[in-house]
Amino acid sequence: MELVIEGLSKYFEKKEVLRDITFRFQKGKIYGLLGRNGAGKTTLFNCLNRDIKTDGGDFYIDEAGQRRETTADDIGYVLSTPTVPEFLTGREFLKFFIDINQKNIQDLKSIDEYFEIINLAEEDRDKLLKDYSHGMKNKMQMLVNIIAKPHILLLDEPLTSLDVVVAEEMKQLLKTLKEDQIIIFSTHIMELALDLCDEIVILNHGKLELVDQENLNNEEFKNKIIDTLREESHA
Ligand SMILES: Nc1ncnc2c1ncn2[C@@H]1O[C@H](COP(=O)(O)OP(=O)(O)OP(=O)(O)O)[C@@H](O)[C@H]1O
């Protein structure tokens, strides 16, 4: 399975944020999406999630040469600012999510087993989501996406608010998920991208560009990424 983007463009008034983007993302890989502030990473995710309209181009799923449109079920989107129904407890939210998605969930587990995946303390499971910390809400968002296992997982700066232990657990979890999914992960943290991702993709001048790792060691690769990102500031 591949997510194919062809000639995608997006303007905000006269500002061209995404410029004729063409790229193929492959199943089984975690892609680190790097770009400077305002480069258009969130805009790209919003387009792929159909939250905003594109101004040109197309994207679709290619399954063994068969082209099909993406559906809402294909895509999971974890926002940097988590949005959860604040009036529900963690347990009520999970139960509701599982109830409405039951037919699509493989290997259904108990609610508490799901909480164990994200190491949410027992005392927090019956608290209202409005009283969860930013990191805890983020973990809940990650968890529903882990349960639903969409074909394409878009993660917009998801680990930034997690403490080091949880971030490490999430990284390991993402590595186990990637086999069946395309994971696109935007981050400003270069070490995280290098550590977690199979490919590094830079959003530069409104275009997506794969950074070829060749035989570079981590330090050289890092410098190459910074050089590419720096070039944009002179554009
Ligand atoms: N709804 C909108 N209306 C007008 N301009 C917008 C809108 N959304 C985003 N932009 C502009 O599009 C550009 C890209 O923004 P976007 O949020 O996609 O960047 P980003 O790469 O995610 O940035 P960051 O890393 O800082 O989060 C910015 O110049 C931003 O001001």
UniProtKB/TrEMBL annotation:
Membrane spanning stretches: none
Q: Which SUPFAM superfamilies match?
A: P-loop containing nucleoside triphosphate hydrolases (SSF52540)
- What's a Pfam family in this record? ABC_tran
Q: Does the keyword Hydrolase apply?
A: no
Could you state a single Gene Ontology molecular function term?
Answer: ATP hydrolysis activity
Q: Could you tell me the keywords of this UniProt record?
A: ATP-binding, Nucleotide-binding, Transport
Q: Does the keyword Nucleotide-binding apply?
A: yes
Domain ABC transporter per the UniProt entry, residue ranges: 3-230
Q: Which InterPro entries match?
A: AAA+_ATPase, ABC_transporter-like_ATP-bd, ABC_transporter-like_CS, ABC_Transporter_VariousFunc, P-loop_NTPase
In its UniProt entry, what is this protein called? Answer: ABC transporter ATP-binding protein
Organism the protein comes from: Massiliimalia timonensis
